[in-house]
Amino acid sequence: MISFLDSDFTQLSLYISNLKPSLLLFLVDENTHEHCLPTILANLETKVQFEIIEIESGEELKNIQTATQLWEILAEFKTDRNALMLNIGGGVITDLGGFVASTYKRGIKFINLPTTLLGMCDASIGGKTGIDLGFLKNMVGTFAHAENIFVCTNFLKTLPFSELRSGFAEMLKHGLIADEKHWQDLISIKELSAESIAPFIKKSMEIKENVVEIDFKEQNIRKTLNFGHTFGHAFEGLFLEQKTLIPHGEAVAMGMICETYLSYLEEFISKEKSEEIIKQIKRFFPYHNISNFKDEEIIELMKNDKKNTSGQIKFSLLERLGKGNFDIKVSQENVVKTLHFYRNYTF
Ligand SMILES: NC(=O)c1ccc[n+]([C@@H]2O[C@H](COP(=O)([O-])OP(=O)(O)OC[C@H]3O[C@@H](n4cnc5c(N)ncnc54)[C@H](O)[C@@H]3O)[C@@H](O)[C@H]2O)c1
Ligand SMILES: O=C(O)C(=O)C[C@@H](O)[C@H](O)[C@H](O)COP(=O)(O)O
Ligand SMILES: [Zn+2]
Question: SUPFAM superfamilies, alphabetically (predicted)?
Answer without folding.
Answer: Dehydroquinate synthase-like
